[in-house]
Amino acid sequence: MGKLLFHAHNTCSCYDGGGSNASNRYAFKYHLERLATKLGLEIRVAHYPPYCSKYNPIEHRFFPHVTQACQGLLLTSLEVTCRAMAKASTKQGLKTTVHVLPGDYPLKEGYPEDYPMLMKIRFDEELPAWNYRAIPGKCDS
After folding, report:
1. Per-residue pLDDT at 114
2. Taking the domains of the chain in order of start, what are their residue ranges?
3. Which residue has the higher pLDDT, 119 or 109?
């Protein structure tokens, strides 16, 4: 029997409406465009509206269990926090896997000054502030 090969041309990601990946952040869109180009993949984005995280299934169904696992603990180190979070689970058998990504995460990572005029984000007709696509461009290298 032959192998079935699958190559995705696009993907859709849902994001919460706040923080550094909020729908009104140019830095998020700039780095999203770069990722789309690097992967050669169109990335469709759908943001939950601000203050609507209750509709985010992961946040709504699983984060309370993580919060409960950490309740009453002094989270004094990364190790203590990871250990506490790793204990979270649900009655249905969902368990937490905790990984800390190595590296530095610079604050206020930005975007080029002219990016707002040059961005290639394609906004949807329906709710354009929250729904858009990052189209892969030509690689610089």
Report:
1. 94
2. 10-100+110-134
3. 119
Which are the contacts of 98, defined by CB distance < 8 A and separation ≥ 6? Answer: 82, 85, 86
**Alpha carbon 59 to chain centroid, angstroms:** 12
The string of DSSP letters for 93-104 reads --B----PPPS-
Measured distance CA(119)–CA(112) in Å, rounded: 10
11 bridge partner residues:
43
Confidence of residue 113 (pLDDT cuts 50, 70, 90): very high
Separation CA 90–CA 75 (nearest Å): 22
State the pLDDT at residue 3: 59
CA-CA distance, 76 to 72, in Å (whole number)?
12
